[in-house]
Specification:
By secondary structure, this protein is α/β, with parallel strands linked by helices. The protein has helices spanning 36-41, 72-78, 90-100, 114-121; strands spanning 8-10, 13-15, 18-26, 46-54, 60-63, 84-87, 112-113.
């Protein structure tokens, strides 16, 4: 099982600053021909792996397909508005995690994408980092 590093403390209470996320999923719905909502609403949808890094600590991986469980601290961080969430495709992670956790659509608070980070700091995005439409910087 993944080991959760101790949280930072702010004002005497535990608090994470940010979490970077990546998930590996399965669904019989073809994501290339459908929306993330239809994909995640398929009866056989499942999150297989959850990778995360808290406040730039080493990456931890939870193998949900093998029966591991997401640590309570991470579950709490997913819905904590004070915790900044980062993902390569934040909308995908947000929708899929909301479905996995049995929350209404859009319940996991919005988070930033790596593309947004590149855009905000004003540096060119590598072709491997998609824009908000799922296209890399070099895609037309």
């Amino acid at each position: 099982m993944a080991v959760f590093p101790p949280p930072f403390f702010h004002g005497g209470e535990p608090h994470l600053n940010h979490i970077s996320l990546d998930i590996e999923t399965y669904s019989s719905v073809d994501l290339n021909k459908s929306s993330v909502y239809r994909y995640s609403e398929a009866p056989d949808f499942e999150i297989l792996l959850l990778g995360y890094s808290v406040d730039d600590d080493p990456v931890q991986v939870v193998d949900l397909a093998s029966g591991e469980r997401i640590p309570e601290e991470i579950l709490a961080a997913l819905t904590d508005e004070r915790v900044t969430k980062w993902a390569f495709n934040a909308n995908f992670e947000r929708v899929c995690l909301s479905r996995y956790l049995g929350m209404p659509k859009r319940r996991v608070p919005r988070s930033g994408t790596v593309a947004l980070h590149y855009d905000l700091v004003g540096i060119p995005r590598p072709a491997s980092v998609p824009d908000g439409r799922g296209r890399g910087a070099g895609a037309g």
